């Protein structure tokens, strides 16, 4: 592929810096055995590997969906064609501080073709947020099913009502609770607006964890809402205060799935953990096969996406500023380029 054609590029160093246009950027050549994808939509998000204290480094360009611009002719039986709509499972070299409208994909196995009717903006929410939530729910599913054998009701507490929390509500209701009234999904957050949105997404109840309230009151309030205590926690915050709180309300043999974006160190009494037979499970984003499964669920309309809003790429700086200040409810998706029919 010729590199003579210029492409769109925005770059920023951190959440405090504005995006600037990159001059003289060229469309990349097709890598051996790989492909080049024209990006149409990109999710505005971070990765846990790029969270350092309260300073958020941007990782644009890794949660994307677009159209195949070119495929290496040496790729055998890939069933990929120019013009196919695809989701890009993030490769390591995609973790940059830059938005491009063309990216290289070294391994075509990381391209997932989506049908024409699949909304491209929804596809762009899947490789990070949707996939992380799906991985969390699939981790939780066998645990909850086992608990239901011995308990009348299982209380699931989701800590964080942002994009990950909303995805988790949708997926947990579809894959775990279904029509079962014995599984109660409760959401905790510091934002009342986010909790109202979580209620709209169908959770059983919500808890306002106001930072100004006394810790013991928040614990008692949580136990009052989650009658009988909490059996399983999916924690997307994992600050020292919230994590300590979840352990205070966690039942015997309870499980905490940690997918938090906090880099603070947390002290845990292993003796108490052992005596209560409680478990802490780490969570990463997920696999490419899980991403394929998630696409199938959405294509079959067994799961619907959470609330989202789309913005032009030129508003990227403001979008990330609003995200950092918790002014955006649900997910934010940036339109990088037009979707060609």
Automatic annotation (TrEMBL):
Residues 13-334 form the Enoyl reductase (ER) domain. Keywords: Metal-binding, Oxidoreductase, Zinc. The keyword Zinc applies. SMART domains: PKS_ER. Gene3D superfamilies: Medium-chain alcohol dehydrogenases, catalytic domain, NAD(P)-binding Rossmann-like Domain. It holds the Pfam family ADH_N. One of its GO terms (molecular function) is metal ion binding. This is Geraniol dehydrogenase 1 isoform X2. It comes from Lingula anatina. The lineage of its organism: Eukaryota, Metazoa, Spiralia, Lophotrochozoa, Brachiopoda.
């Amino acid at each position: 592929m010729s590199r003579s054609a210029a492409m769109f590029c925005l770059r920023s160093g951190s959440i405090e810096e504005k995006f600037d246009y990159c001059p003289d950027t060229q469309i990349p050549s097709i890598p051996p055995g790989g492909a080049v994808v024209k990006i149409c939509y990109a999710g505005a998000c971070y990765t846990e590997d790029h969270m350092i204290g309260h300073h958020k480094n941007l990782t644009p360009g890794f949660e994307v969906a677009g159209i195949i611009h070119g495929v290496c002719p040496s790729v055998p039986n890939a069933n990929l064609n120019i013009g196919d709509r695809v989701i890009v499972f993030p490769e390591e070299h995609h973790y940059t501080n830059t938005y491009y409208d063309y990216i290289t994909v070294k391994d075509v196995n990381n391209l997932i073709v989506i049908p024409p009717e699949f909304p491209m903006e929804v596809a762009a929410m899947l490789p990070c947020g949707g996939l992380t939530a799906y991985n969390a729910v699939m981790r939780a599913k066998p645990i909850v099913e086992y608990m239901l054998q011995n308990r009348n009701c299982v209380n699931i507490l989701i800590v964080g009502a942002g994009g990950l929390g909303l995805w988790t509500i949708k997926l947990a209701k579809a894959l775990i609770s279904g029509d079962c009234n014995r599984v109660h999904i409760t959401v905790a957050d510091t934002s009342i607006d986010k909790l109202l949105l979580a209620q709209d997404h169908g959770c059983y109840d919500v808890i306002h964890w106001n930072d100004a309230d006394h810790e013991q009151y928040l614990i008692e309030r949580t136990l009052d809402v989650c009658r009988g205590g909490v059996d399983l926690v999916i924690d997307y915050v994992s600050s020292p205060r919230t994590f300590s709180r979840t352990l205070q309300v966690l039942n015997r043999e309870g499980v905490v799935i940690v997918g938090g974006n906090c880099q603070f160190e947390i002290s845990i009494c292993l003796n108490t953990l052992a005596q209560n037979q409680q478990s802490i499970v780490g969570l990463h984003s997920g696999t490419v096969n899980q991403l394929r499964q998630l696409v199938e669920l959405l294509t079959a309309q067994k799961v619907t996406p959470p609330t989202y809003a789309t913005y032009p790429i030129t508003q990227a700086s403001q979008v990330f500023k609003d995200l950092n200040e918790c002014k955006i409810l649900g997910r934010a998706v940036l339109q990088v380029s037009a979707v060609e029919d």
